Give the backbone structure.
Amino acid sequence: MNEFDGYLILDDGNGTTIHLPWHVLPRKAARVEPSTTNLAGSGFPELIELENEGVGTAQNDAYSLVGLSPDLPEGDRGQ
């Protein structure tokens, strides 16, 4: 029962019809909220608690920032 599908039939009234299939696979959604979003001036290591207020399991990945560089190349819009 986790799949919904069907067809929308569009009719212009002159005998032309379009059959438009649709398909939805719903899933439980997570809604993860951090304990803070303001990290300015805080020391490291920083502890940020996450709370899942949704009904599904959340996937969370953490990455370490190992270096900073002032070399930030410019790019065109959308790059």
